[in-house]
Amino acid sequence: MKIKFSLLSLLMLMCFNMNAQEEEESKSFKDFIDVSGSLDAYFRTNLNANYDLAPGTAFANLPGFSLGMANLILAKEGEKVGFVGDFVLGPRGEDATFLSPILRPNGNSSIVNQLYVYWNINDKITTTFGNFNTFLGYEVIAPTGNFNYSTSYMFSYGPFSHTGLKFDFALHEDLSLMVGAFNATDATEYNIVSNYVLGAQLGYSKDKGSIYLNTLYDNENEFFQVDITAGMDITDDFYAGLNSTIATDNFLGVAAYLQYGINDDFDIGTRIEYFKDTGLGLFAEDDSVLDFTITGKYKIGDLSIMPEIRTDIFSSDILLKEATFNDNGSIDKEAVTGKALASFVLAVVYEF
After folding, report:
1. Is 351 exposed, middle or buried (0-12, 13-18, 19+ CB in 10 A)?
2. Are 308 and 293 in contact (CB under 8 A)?
């Protein structure tokens, strides 16, 4: 009787282990790692200028049918610790990680958009170590995080990412503080200079909206940037956002973002931005630009179709169309200058 019971117990244990192994093997990669990301492409043309002229802003500035990027995000969120690996391929991704191939031309870190680990020390303090997208500004690198497909001047000439160590503090239910020390801005792989950059963010957030005060300080280069971002749901269908920034001896700007949900499938929004060059070198010093952008967003499941009209009005004339010449060297068409550059973009963004 004792022997029979032992054999029966052994058989049951073997069956239990086999079932557990089969269940473990049947789990997919996504059961262990959270997978998300996006893919985007676009068509761009000018309405009053040469086909290849574009605003001096990031990403959506290539002529004709153009590629954005493939974005793959792998993440694991634990109770105490976790990580994020954010990888990009394509022109938008290469522009976003522009210092990586310069630092190591034969390397592959140009595909790294973010790569960091974090530790929830307690329910009030989280520390993050690695490379992460900037906390300054209203817009982000991934097109899924912005309403407009083209980007603002303030975003384009502010930092894209930081590599370093930061601490996030929950000061109150609605109040937060972040402080950190980073490598030189946008230096993904390692610090290209001997000094470090300090950053801080003070945030206040409620259900209907939030406001953040962001600062970045580089003592060695006597650089200081202060930035304010805010947003609020005015109604269930109407949202208003604001971004204002000033960077020492570089630029200053302010932008308003307005978005309205017409129905469940279609939203429309605008960005109105004023940007002044105070030493950046994009324009003549103290020249400025007004950016008026209107974007529609039609959603078909996980796919967004985004027509966009953008007009950049400069304080000084720019060359819109170059002169063309006949075979004998005489001018066929005179060069065209003006203060306004009008363009049209049709973008498609798939999010998963």
Report:
1. middle
2. yes
The residue to which tokens 């209107």 are assigned: 294
pTM tops 0.90, yes or no: no
Alpha helices of the chain — where are they, by DSSP H?
2-26, 91-96, 99-103, 153-157
Show pLDDT as tens, one digit a residue, over the chain (352 residues): 444 445 445 445 555 555 555 555 555 666 689 999 999 999 999 999 999 999 999 999 999 999 999 999 999 999 899 999 999 999 999 999 887 766 665 555 679 999 999 999 999 999 999 999 999 999 999 999 999 999 999 999 999 999 999 999 999 999 999 999 999 988 888 888 888 999 999 999 999 999 999 999 998 888 999 999 999 999 999 999 999 999 998 999 999 999 999 999 999 999 999 999 999 988 887 899 999 999 999 999 999 999 999 999 999 999 888 887 877 777 767 788 899 999 999 999 999 9
Alpha-carbon distance of 114 to 134, in angstroms, equals 10
Q: Name the residue among 247, 139, 123 with its Cα closest to residue 176.
A: 123
Q: Which two tokens stand for residue 195?
A: 């000094």
- Look at residue 298 and give its three-state secondary structure: strand
Q: What is the DSSP string of 273-334?
A: EEEEESSSSSSSTT-EEEEEEEEEEEEETTEEEEEEEEEEEEEEEEEEE--EE-TTS-EEE-
For 125-185, the DSSP string reads: EEEEEEEEE-SSSS--SSGGG-SSSS--HHHHHS--EEEEEEEEEE-SSSEEEEEEEESST
DSSP state of 187: -
Tell me how crowded residue 188 is: count the other CB atoms within 10 A of its CB.
25
User: In this structure, what token pair is assigned to residue 173?
Assistant: 């239910």
Residue type, 105: P
The second-level CATH assignment, the architecture, of 32-351 is Beta Barrel (2.40)
Domain ranges for the chain = 32-351
**Pairing between strand 112-120 and 125-133?**
antiparallel
